Structure to design on (118 residues):
């Protein structure tokens, strides 16, 4: 039961974050896209570029941020590379990796370039 509640809370957080990006003029290219490396929660279009978004929900933004591991970032990188193969510019596509932190009351904090790439 707790797992199902957590799963539904994660889906709701992803929907909130998708709406946030859409309000800022960025279309959602994919939700829960799965590559061989793992799943990417959201992929948004930013002009000709892409934003790969990991959504983390917890009681606070700080606790949510703690839930992102180096191993998970590596899996997201691998899946992003797979996704880029289907893009017109391929691996030359401008990209960034954001983390969207959602707290218990639904406040969203976006950490742009969260994986340290510029």
């Amino acid at each position: 039961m707790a797992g199902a509640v957590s799963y539904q809370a994660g889906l709701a957080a992803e929907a909130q974050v998708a709406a946030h990006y859409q309000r800022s003029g960025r279309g959602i290219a994919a939700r829960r896209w799965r590559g061989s490396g793992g799943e990417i929660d959201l992929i948004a279009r930013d002009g000709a570029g892409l934003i790969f978004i990991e959504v983390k929900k917890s009681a606070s933004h700080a606790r949510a941020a703690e839930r992102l591991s180096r191993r998970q970032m590596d899996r997201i990188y691998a899946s992003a590379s797979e996704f880029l193969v289907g893009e017109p510019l391929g691996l030359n596509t401008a990209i960034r990796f954001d983390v969207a932190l959602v707290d218990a009351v639904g406040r969203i904090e976006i950490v742009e370039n969260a994986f340290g790439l510029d």
